[in-house]
Design goal:
Shape: elongated
Strand content: under 5%
Oligomer: single chain
Largest sheet: none
Number of helices: 3
Radius of gyration: 31 Å
Helix content: 55-70%
Order of helices and strands: HHH
Structural class: mainly alpha
């Protein structure tokens, strides 16, 4: 048990000093997040305007030629 406690303590002390890759300051905080959301919103709005500007395509083929649904063979 004592050996296990020592091993965990050594592992924690080594793991606490591990340094990851640096994060640039322009990517930290709320301002960059708001800017990214505004860019995404403007792109989505542009896509919506493009879709709304196009006329709706009429379905062709089997869906147009089908007769209305009626129950068949019921008693």
């Amino acid at each position: 048990m004592k050996v296990m406690v020592i091993m965990v303590a050594l592992w924690l002390s080594a793991a606490c000093g591990v340094i990851g890759s640096p994060i640039p300051p322009e990517d930290v905080g709320i301002a960059p997040l708001i800017e990214r959301q505004k860019k995404l919103d403007s792109l989505e709005a542009a896509k919506q305007e493009a879709v709304e500007g196009q006329p709706a395509a009429e379905p062709l083929g089997q869906d147009v030629d089908l007769p209305p649904l009626r129950p068949m063979g019921t008693r």
